[in-house]
# Entry
Amino acid sequence: MQTVQVQAPSHSYDIVIGKNILNDFNLFAPHIGKKAAIVTNTTVAQWYLQPLVKLLQNNGIDAFSIILPDGEQHKNHESLNHIYDSLLANHADRKTTLIALGGGVIGDTVGYAAATYQRGVPLIQIPTTLLSQVDSSVGGKTAINHPRGKNMIGAFYQPKLVLADLNTLATLPEREFSAGMAEVIKYALLGDVAFLAWLEQHIAAIMQKDHTLLAQMIAHCCQMKADIVAQDETEQGIRAHLNLGHTFGHAIEAQMGYGNWLHGEAVAAGMVMAAELSQQLGYIGSDEIERVKNIIRAAHLPDTPPKFSEEEWLAHMRHDKKVDEGKMRFITLKNLGAAQIETLPDVNVLKNVLSKFTA
Amino acid sequence: MQTVQVQAPSHSYDIVIGKNILNDFNLFAPHIGKKAAIVTNTTVAQWYLQPLVKLLQNNGIDAFSIILPDGEQHKNHESLNHIYDSLLANHADRKTTLIALGGGVIGDTVGYAAATYQRGVPLIQIPTTLLSQVDSSVGGKTAINHPRGKNMIGAFYQPKLVLADLNTLATLPEREFSAGMAEVIKYALLGDVAFLAWLEQHIAAIMQKDHTLLAQMIAHCCQMKADIVAQDETEQGIRAHLNLGHTFGHAIEAQMGYGNWLHGEAVAAGMVMAAELSQQLGYIGSDEIERVKNIIRAAHLPDTPPKFSEEEWLAHMRHDKKVDEGKMRFITLKNLGAAQIETLPDVNVLKNVLSKFTA
Ligand SMILES: NC(=O)c1ccc[n+]([C@@H]2O[C@H](COP(=O)([O-])OP(=O)(O)OC[C@H]3O[C@@H](n4cnc5c(N)ncnc54)[C@H](O)[C@@H]3O)[C@@H](O)[C@H]2O)c1
Ligand SMILES: NC(=O)c1ccc[n+]([C@@H]2O[C@H](COP(=O)([O-])OP(=O)(O)OC[C@H]3O[C@@H](n4cnc5c(N)ncnc54)[C@H](O)[C@@H]3O)[C@@H](O)[C@H]2O)c1
Ligand SMILES: [Zn+2]
Ligand SMILES: [Zn+2]
# Structure
């Protein structure tokens, strides 16, 4: 079992990572009220809901469950209202604990419900995808989508506790596991070359879900994200490094139609493109590019994007939030393990990179 | 012009109180982005919207307006969505400033929209009722109603600036002005007997809307609320004093049908009842009761509740949030200017008080 302590502005809390921790009521006890609502989706419910309901009920908690449909398209206002209605029907008050049991979609939606129900109720996050364990459950961002845009409505809200149980990864589809690995690799590339070397050494065993290595890896990623977030609550500076590969990645997701490429897959190819851009700018060489591609391939992720026209690429990138007032800002790699925010001197540097990935 | 500085957990900000301050762009300048959405209602818009739009536009701000229907029944999810939709249609981003121009209904709704649009955008509060100037614009509570309960969905969110322009009170119906005075009297009774004496001395001129006295009075109330909130962010302790008269008041509002008695009117009668309860408990005498009734009458507020049956009274009070796990908690007056939280020893003390107001 590994524990990462996160220092949030309002309070500090633990991320506990390990095997069988969802059976251990002692972990819940200090953070749970007399009444608790477990919110999950139809997929995750199959394996993990009943054991958790029983654990809590056996320990005297008045636990009830709320089951949402599965999918990003349900990270919306209807699911939110469904949660509010169930909470009210079950007489949930300000001390009722909300438990988010699922991947990032559940985590974001339930986190937002917890932030806003009666101006905020206690929240426990139980991330069950690799992506949510290493990324979305850290940092306090919660949100739902609006028909006009992803994550448009949301709040910053910190949980009382995060429990990442490695057992849950056993049922996770391989493709989803790999998608989570893209964010893991991102942490290495943006800020920790020693961690990159560690990943390179252990990637085969990690892909086999070696529990000891997984626990170390997840804890390391949570620690890195927590440190970055703590340094930059307002999202003006270093937190932007977390977007490494994401400007290109978002273009891929949008052009392919959302859901066809998983977010992590698009980010993986996007990181290769960010590396190529860094090479264009003279920061890294082809050896470094190869290292980036190798670790991405070893995680069963795409090391190259689909081919689009230059127009298609640029159209999506102009819409990206990081393209600030006409100036194109990218996260580039000064070196492996050393990301920086960069405003491109002119669009030709970018076009040179895109030409390699143009139909 | 009076200024009260409020120390919120996230940042500190000013409440500026005075005449003609809505014409002074210098007050806005440090706190407003390039783009601003002014949200108001159809009533307030008549007098105060166009001048503000012009002021901002003349100073180079890309200002647009969002007009909601008037009334507590519109402090809901539909109004919220209307705001979100207009913000998105106008390409509002994270730097767009939301300006709440209106009473507490507008302040609460727009405050909540600002808290949640893109996880939070800058907010300026322009309270235009006395109640919102002395109460709802201080403390960072924002909320909308849910069909199952008032203020059920909300967030804590602090503005960058509050501008309370005394000129706006000229158009406020007398009944609404008096309702605001109930909260003013509440501050005096719960925590400041010198302020009570000052009110007694000046009440006639205040009811005539003497601007100098109003500015002093509003600043004093904002300062008192800000101090109480700062001492007790989690609402476990002294902040409960702000509920003086409210347990009885809520019962009156509910039994009369919401909207028939204004909140402030119900609180005024509720404070008389709280004073009677304090007398029953041996804290204050009939001279103090008379002082309470006199200041309430001088503010053109009811000093006695409608008559209900004991059953009706108790039914509403059992639903009150402050009736915690069967124990009835009330805010009582140890003395004028000295409120305390009290768990009633038994229900008979309460029934004795109710018997005076029973049909
Ligand atoms: N809040 C943040 O900081 C942040 C950061 C990154 C991503 N996100 C959000 O996270 C979401 C993506 O999260 P995700 O990748 O976890 O997607 P997801 O929640 O949709 O989960 C992916 C799929 O795996 C299923 N699943 C979850 N756990 C499982 C398990 N243990 N076994 C079998 N199946 C399981 C889910 O039901 C779903 O079908 C996006 O909405 C994104 O916006 C948020
Ligand atoms: N957030 C908090 O801490 C807090 C505290 C107390 C009350 N509240 C909330 O505040 C709301 C009540 O606020 P309110 O009493 O200001 O009610 P309100 O906003 O409904 O205003 C009362 C009436 O006066 C009109 N009005 C507003 N300004 C005017 C002006 N200058 N001239 C003429 N008419 C004007 C309004 O359109 C409305 O018809 C409730 O929803 C309550 O829950 C919130
Ligand atoms: Zn990502
Ligand atoms: Zn009140």
User: Anything to note?
Assistant: Chain A has a mean pLDDT of 95. Residues 2-171 of chain A form a domain with the Rossmann fold fold (CATH 3.40.50.1970). The CA atoms of residues 188 and 194 of chain A lie 8 Å apart.
